[in-house]
């Protein structure tokens, strides 16, 4: 159709002239018709040449969006300058696009390599982009989203993490002391459909919501501090900066994060250490000072009293040493609690080794230890030293607080919770048991059901607090089952799957 229209446009004038000449008799009919057909044929040929050259010019324009390729120039000399101009335009556009692509790649590389976590959100706080540091900190989505495009629709939510049916230690408390023994928080769906507990908790955090609303309303940066409670409490400093506020969809938000967990933990631990040490060391120190004063005075020449008092003083000094060791150990565990362990541990071998080390205490108490090691995996992702400490503390508690001459059972078995593979360790004694109202507070530092009995048994009051923080680090679960007069069972569940701890919660 284009060819016919162009032919008619070119041959219309000479054809009309010939028709008028034929009608006036100025030209003979035969030669006139022949001239008319020759004119139309020439118009058709010229139209074909023009269309072919215009097609080449169009190909040059399309080449601006395609890789470089050799495109033939028009055959008509009159169109050559136009074609050469198009070629120069195509080359300039291609060079500009390449420079823009290099600049975008450089910007993306800089953002990705920034040491501080960085998020880009839309006006509804949906995640558009996260750099490597942000993904490492809160498990955010990979940087495959274009900040200029709207976010993808939600893809659904994962269900909550499983919990043991037994009453968990620390139920109803916060993430600090006395909080859940080791229960994970449920996984929440992120607005971009990538469900990760920490990311969803951040995007839905009221502090971020308030800061984002202020930025969108005032177009001024906002600074705030917040605490992410899952899977382990994190202290974050946050800066929210407006980006492209004139966009019709409300603009973008740049969120800069800084993890202050370690330094604030150090501050809290320093204060806690001073407070706890001063409180717990006051009694043995007062006892030591009393005995020293007695040995300097009335019992100075009494060899029997001196021997007895020195034995008591040695016991008090050993208790203070155990207390300080436990406090320092607990502080070290808290420092690494938010970092999942990277090694593996043979749980059955650890239990056997700790059982052999318990032989002297078992002999003094006249108790026996029964090991029930089922088909647990030979190696699980765990910190072997910390798992050994958990097993040691649980066995020691069961022997010291169990019935004299009684039996302590240690059971290890594979157990999946909500399709998550794991291993369950249960340590049971046949002692006097624990009243139910005390169970939620057992993992608090220095909390004792019977202070006098616990101290006489040689405990520092930190064993279960240490266990709780170790289980938290392994993203496991701690449950305590007991009734007064019916013994107690301490149950630990640790995940053995390959997923990153914390994202599974």
UniProtKB/TrEMBL annotation:
It catalyses: ATP + protein L-histidine = ADP + protein N-phospho-L-histidine. Its main location: membrane. Its EC number is 2.7.13.3. PROSITE patterns: HIS_KIN. CDD domains: HATPase, HisKA. SUPFAM superfamilies: ATPase domain of HSP90 chaperone/DNA topoisomerase II/histidine kinase, Homodimeric domain of signal transducing histidine kinase. One of its GO terms (cellular component) is plasma membrane. This is histidine kinase.
């Amino acid at each position: 159709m284009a060819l016919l229209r162009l032919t008619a446009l070119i041959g219309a004038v000479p054809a009309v002239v010939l028709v008028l000449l034929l009608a006036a008799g100025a030209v003979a009919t035969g030669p006139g018709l022949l001239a008319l057909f020759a004119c139309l044929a020439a118009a058709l040929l010229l139209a074909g040449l023009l269309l072919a050259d215009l097609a080449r010019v169009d190909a040059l324009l399309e080449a601006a969006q395609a890789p470089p390729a050799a495109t033939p120039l028009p055959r008509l000399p009159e169109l050559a300058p136009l074609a050469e101009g198009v070629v120069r335009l195509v080359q300039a556009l291609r060079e500009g696009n390449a420079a823009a692509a290099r600049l975008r790649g450089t910007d993306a590389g800089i953002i990705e390599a920034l040491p501080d976590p960085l998020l880009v959100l839309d006006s509804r706080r949906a995640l558009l982009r996260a750099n490597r540091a942000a993904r490492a900190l809160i498990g955010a989505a990979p940087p495959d989203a274009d900040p200029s495009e709207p976010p993808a629709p939600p893809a659904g939510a994962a269900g909550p993490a499983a919990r043991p049916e037994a009453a968990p230690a620390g139920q109803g408390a916060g993430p600090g002391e006395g909080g859940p023994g080791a229960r994970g928080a449920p996984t929440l769906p992120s607005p971009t459909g990538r469900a990760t507990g920490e990311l969803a908790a951040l995007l839905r955090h009221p502090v971020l919501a308030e800061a984002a609303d202020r930025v969108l309303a005032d177009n001024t940066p906002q600074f705030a501090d917040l605490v992410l409670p899952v899977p382990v409490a994190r202290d974050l400093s946050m800066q929210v900066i407006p980006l492209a506020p004139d966009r019709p969809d409300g603009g973008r938000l740049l969120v800069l994060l800084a993890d202050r967990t370690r330094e604030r933990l150090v501050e809290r631990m320093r204060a806690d250490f001073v407070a706890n040490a001063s409180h717990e060391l006051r009694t043995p120190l007062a006892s030591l000072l009393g005995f020293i004063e007695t040995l300097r005075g009335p019992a100075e020449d009494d060899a029997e009293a001196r021997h007895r008092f020195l034995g008591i003083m040695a016991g008090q000094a050993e208790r203070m040493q155990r207390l300080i060791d436990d406090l320092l150990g607990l502080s070290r565990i808290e420092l690494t609690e938010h970092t999942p362990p990277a090694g593996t541990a043979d749980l059955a071998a650890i239990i056997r080794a700790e059982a052999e080390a318990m032989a002297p205490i078992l002999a003094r108490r006249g108790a026996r230890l029964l090991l029930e090691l089922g088909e647990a995996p030979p190696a699980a992702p765990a910190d072997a030293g910390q798992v050994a400490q958990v097993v040691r503390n649980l066995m020691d508690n069961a022997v010291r607080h169990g019935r004299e001459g009684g039996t302590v059972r240690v059971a290890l078995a594979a157990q999946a919770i909500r399709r998550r593979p794991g291993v369950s360790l249960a340590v049971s004694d046949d002692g006097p048991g624990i009243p139910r109202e005390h169970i939620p507070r057992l993992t608090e530092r220095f909390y004792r059901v019977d202070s006098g009995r616990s101290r006489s048994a040689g405990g520092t009051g930190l064993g279960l607090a240490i266990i709780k923080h170790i289980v938290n680090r392994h993203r496991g679960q701690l449950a305590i089952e007991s009734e007064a007069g019916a013994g107690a069972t301490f149950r630990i569940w640790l995940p053995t799957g390959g997923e990153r701890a914390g994202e599974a919660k």
